UniProtKB/TrEMBL annotation:
Its EC number is 2.3.1.30. This is Serine acetyltransferase. It comes from the Bacteria. Residues 14-118 form the Serine acetyltransferase N-terminal domain. It comes from Pseudogemmobacter lacusdianii. PROSITE patterns: HEXAPEP_TRANSFERASES. The gene is cysE. GO terms for molecular function: serine O-acetyltransferase activity. NCBIfam families: cysE (TIGR01172), EPS_EpsC (NF041874). Belongs to the transferase hexapeptide repeat family. Pathway: Amino-acid biosynthesis; L-cysteine biosynthesis; L-cysteine from L-serine: step 1/2. It holds the Pfam family Hexapep.
Length: 268
């Protein structure tokens, strides 16, 4: 296993960085050695490490760790984009979360990152027509991480969910690339209507803590939704909305609010 890992790290710089950080973590704190070996150093690729983490976290008396590990390995082998999205998400957390100082932290400790990677496997199952299994994955993500993402929802790459407590994303929601959101965000419907009923979040949007975006509405590219807002109408691109109900209160404040994570409203 060590030889295989060394071969892969020569062509995967991120995986090499993760392995180096894992070895340093064990040197600094030997008590985490067994966990870090099991989660990272025992595996030959990032995909295999994520499959192991998926199985460890989501297994239960109803579904064994081995079954879930085989399922995740199948997903990563069948769809290389899952590994690409996992890398983009990892970079997003490392670059945008000031509490993240090492690449190993999201994989080992951050439930937002782990929940999103588990969702991605559930979404793959949904696309393969294996809906009952995808519902099981959704249920376990909700129970383990407190994050409820319908497996049919479409989430782009470079997603960062900070703290990730009480996140709800509905069935027909679409989230673009390089989006950032904080805890207690809801992308929900407005009632019992069926069909396309959830928000469409464009690339580069920043959604503050506790914000609720409801209904089949568009949130424009690189806009900001202030913490605690209730958004019921479409949001123009590069603007900031705030309030209950939310209204446009100014420009987005910068070209890429989701990357800068600037949540301060500078009103004229």
């Amino acid at each position: 296993m060590a030889d295989a890992r060394k071969k892969v790290t020569t062509i995967d710089p991120l995986w090499r960085r993760l392995c180096d950080e894992a070895e340093e973590a064990i040197r600094l704190e030997p008590l985490v050695g067994a966990m870090v070996h099991s989660a990272l150093l025992h595996h030959s690729t990032l995909e295999r490490a994520l499959a192991h983490r998926f199985a460890m976290k989501l297994s239960s008396p109803e579904m064994s760790e081995q079954v879930l590990r085989d399922l995740a390995d199948e997903a990563y082998a069948a769809d290389p984009d899952l590994g690409g999205a996992a890398r983009a998400d990892l970079m997003a957390v490392y670059e945008r979360d000031p509490a993240c100082h090492k690449f190993i932290q999201p994989i080992l400790f951050f439930k937002g990152y782990q929940a999103v990677q588990a969702y991605r496997i559930g979404h793959w199952l949904w696309r393969m027509g294996r809906k009952e299994m995808s519902y099981f994955v959704q249920m376990r993500i909700s129970e383990v991480f407190g994050v409820d993402i319908h497996p049919a929802a479409k989430l782009g790459r470079g997603l960062m969910i900070d703290h990730a407590h009480s996140i709800v994303i509905g069935e027909t929601a679409v989230v673009g690339d390089n989006v950032s959101m904080l805890h207690s965000v809801t992308l929900g419907g407005t009632g019992k209507e069926d069909g396309d009923r959830h928000p469409k979040i464009a690339d580069g949007v920043l959604i503050g803590a506790g914000a609720k975006v409801l209904g089949n509405i568009q949130v424009g590219q690189c806009s900001r939704i202030a913490a605690g807002s209730v958004v019921l109408e479409e949001v123009p691109r590069n603007t900031t909305v705030a309030g209950v109900p939310a209204r446009v209160v100014g420009k987005a404040g910068c070209a890429q609010p989701a990357l800068t994570m600037d949540q301060i409203l500078k009103l004229d």
